[in-house]
Amino acid sequence: MKWGVIGASTIASEWMIDAIRAQGGAIEVLCSGSGEHAHEFASNHRIPEVITRPEEFEPFSLDAVYVSSINHLHLRQVEICASMGLHVLCEKPLTLDLDEARSMLQICRKAGVHLGTNHHLRYAATHQRIRELIGEGAIGEILSARVFHAVHLPPHLQGWRINAPEQGGGVVVDIAVHNADVLSVTMGGYPEQVQSMTSEKSLGQGVEDECMSIWRYAGDRLVSTHESFVTPFAGHGIEFHGTQGSLFGQQVMSQAPVGRVTLNDAQGSREIDVVHRNLYEGVIADFAESVNDGRAPWCDGVSGYNSLATALAVLESAKTGQLQSPNLWSA
Ligand code: NDP
User: Which distant-in-sequence residues (6+ apart) come within 8 Å of 30 by Cβ?
Assistant: First the structure.
C-alpha cells in the first residue's frame, strides 16, 4: 500500500513508520505543519515529499493515510482524506467528544473508505494468548479483572499530555481508551457502568495525571483500572480471575512486544509460552488486509468510538462523583 502520514510525531517516528514498511507499505509523503522539524523528520525517515496541508495530497498516488497528529486535529484531517477517497488509520483517541467521533465515522462511511483506530494492545501476542486460554476454558467463567496501566510519562511525551485538555491532555483520554479497547475483546464488550476518581499530582498542569475506577461489565463482572503518568516503578499488567483459575499478564500494557503470561489454577502456577511479535505491525497488517479484502479492520472506527465513550464516562464520573454509563455506539 502507498501511504501518506499526517504528523511529524513521536509515535510515527518510534513505531509506525517502521511498522508500515515492515508490512511492505511505502510512505510517499509527510503532511506536517512544523516547518524545519518536518523536513528534518522526512529526511531522517527517508520520506520523499513534505506537504503542509492534507488538501495537498494527490489521491491517485496514495491508498491510505495514517493520522498521527495531536488529537483535536484528527477530525478535520480524516474528513479531508476521506473526501479524497483515501482509507484512514487514525490515532486514538479518534476525537475529543462523541459528536465529533460520530461525524468521523459517518463521513468515512459515506465516502466508502475504511477507518481504523490504532489501539495496538489487542494485537499483542500476550493478550492473544490470554484470549485463547480464556476461550479454551482455562479459567472457567470470568468473574473479574484488574488492569494496572500505571507508568511514568517520559519527558519527551509530556508536552500537551500534561497541560492541554483542549488537545486531549490528561491520563484518562490518553490511556483509559487503550484499557477499554483491550478489555472489549476479552470481556465481550464495553462496561455498562463506571465509577471513577482522578487526581492531579506531580505532572498534571490542569489535567489529571492519575485515575482509578471500577467498571461493571455485563454479567455483573467488575474490573478495576489504574491509569497513571506519575508512577515510575509500578509496573503494568492485566489480570483475569475466573471460577477455575486466574491469568496474569505482567508488563503487557506496553508498546514493545514484551511481557509474561502466567496461569494459576488447581494444578499450580505455570508460565505460558508466548511468541512475541511487533504490535504495530499487527495493526498495519490487519488494516492493509481489510482494505484488500473489503472487510472492516478488526479495530475499526466503532471500536475507537466506544473506547472514547468509555474514557469520557470515566472523566464524567470523576467530575460528578456519580456512576456513569458510557454512551456506546448505536447506528
Ligand atoms: P507528538 O507530541 O510527538 O507530536 C504531535 C505533533 O506535534 C506532531 O504531529 C507535530 O506537528 C508536532 N511536533 C512534534 N514534535 C515536534 C517538534 N520537535 N517541533 C515542532 N513540532 C513538533 O505526539 P505523539 O506521537 O505523542 O502523539 C500523536 C498521536 O498519537 C496522539 O493522537 C496520541 O494520542 C497518539 N499516540 C498513540 C499511541 C498508540 O500506541 N496508539 C502512542 C502514542 C501516541 P505536525 O503534525 O504539524 O508535524
Answer: 4, 5, 6, 8, 38, 41, 42, 45, 47, 49, 50, 51
How many angstroms separate the CA atoms of 169 and 261, rounded? 31
Nearest to 30 by CA among 59, 51, 56: 51
Q: Which residues pair with 212 in a beta bridge?
A: 197, 226
* Nearest Cα residue to atom 38 of ligand 1: 11
Please compute Rg for the chain using Cα positions: 20
The pocket around ligand 1, CB under 6 angstroms, is made up of 7-11, 32-34, 37-38, 68-71, 91-92, 118, 120, 157, 159, 174, 255
pLDDT tens sequence for the chain (331 residues)? 999 999 999 999 999 999 999 999 999 999 999 999 999 999 999 999 999 999 999 989 999 999 999 999 999 999 999 999 999 999 999 999 999 999 999 999 999 999 999 999 999 999 999 999 999 999 999 999 999 999 999 999 888 999 888 888 899 999 999 999 999 999 999 999 999 999 998 898 889 999 999 999 999 999 999 999 999 999 999 999 999 999 999 999 999 999 999 999 999 999 999 999 999 999 999 999 999 999 999 999 999 999 999 999 999 999 999 999 999 999 8
Instruction: Domains for the chain: give ranges and CATH numbers.
Output: 2-113 (3.40.50.720), 122-278+309-320 (3.30.360.10)
